[in-house]
Amino acid sequence: MALTLNEEQTMLRDSAREFLQQRAPVQHLRSLRDDESATGMCADLWREMTELGWPAIAIDESDGGLGFGFTGLGIVLQETGRTLTPSPLLTSAMMSAAAIRHGASATQRETWLPDIAAGQSILVPACDEQTRHNPEAIETRIENHGGELKLTGARRHVPDGMAADAFLVSARNEEGDIVLVRVAANATGLAREPVRLLDTHIGAHLRFDAISLSADDVLGGPGDRSATLHHLLDTGVIGQSAELLGVASEAFERTLNYLRERKQFGVPIGSFQALQHRAADLCNDLELGTSLVLHALHRLDQPGGGNELPSLSETASMTKARLAAIAMRATAEAIQMHGGIGMTDEFDIGFFYKRARILETLLGDRHFHLDRFARLRGY
């Protein structure tokens, strides 16, 4: 497995970087925050991303997509990490699309995936009821009332929750099994409350009050539906890791530029040996992180190797734990090396630390995934 980009992937990375630097620099995030955007994202920018085909990258051609794979979408997510661009690429085009491909019926695939690929439907997973990630702690219930399915429960801190057209919600059925159900954002009985996260992105708290569902809203048929939930989460964790790599890489490069420009005692501070050593350590970490992310993305595109070691779940947790640590270190070091100016809101570097902190926490922090990796390996 080559841990390098081929020519097509390199072209995708370069075109995505050019587009985002021009259309969605960090100032774009500032504008959304200062204008108090209701959804936390720009509809015009999302339309342009759709015209570029980004939501269709990881979806098969037979389902209305481009068939470029999760590696291609991960490359784009790395670039959105560099510019801190809010979009539903991770939640809808990667996580929900992966869950549908993994566990949906043929009819559901034909109905849902083309709309996601075309950017016409933003389908967002809603899998956590608690502040800390614990996908098995599910009190939300789907029950049969006189032949009609009813969903009751709540979700907290759902990313892109105010921009979503529909949600993929994990719930327990009357047998206690985990199922995933699709809930329209305008469904009667659904209440959404916006919540601004530390990184200025907008999430949502959801409450489901006896929402009526049909059997067609339940993902897949009889069987181990919890496997689809775990596949959705593993895919999201790997996508987060790609974005974390972009956040860390951009923070590191901005810091290197600052070390070359800032002078003390008549010389650039980058000439100080102590700072050089810290920068060299970060460079090594980022090289390791790049290899881990590419390996994990390749595993998503080659799901047939289920008996390989490590498993996809092990790979996802290993990658998230390492990339979270790398990104937190890179962004914290960036603020320290910038000195006092790094603490100000007027300077961009602090936004990278905040985004890294949120990405580290969502879908489980590094400690959660270190523990999960150990348990998966039998410790």
Automatic annotation (TrEMBL):
Source organism: Elongatibacter sediminis
Keyword hit for NADP: no
Enzyme class: oxidoreductase
A single MF term (Gene Ontology): acyl-CoA dehydrogenase activity
Name of this protein: Acyl-CoA dehydrogenase family protein
Residue intervals of the Acyl-CoA dehydrogenase/oxidase N-terminal domain: 6-120
Keyword Flavoprotein assigned: yes
Cofactor: FAD
Family assignment from sequence similarity: Belongs to the acyl-CoA dehydrogenase family.
EC annotation from Swiss-Prot or TrEMBL: 1.-.-.-
Keywords on record: FAD, Flavoprotein, Oxidoreductase
PANTHER family in alphabetical order: ACYL-COA DEHYDROGENASE, ACYL-COA DEHYDROGENASE FADE28
Top-level division of the source organism's lineage: Bacteria
Domain Acyl-CoA dehydrogenase/oxidase C-terminal positions: 238-375
CDD domains: ACAD
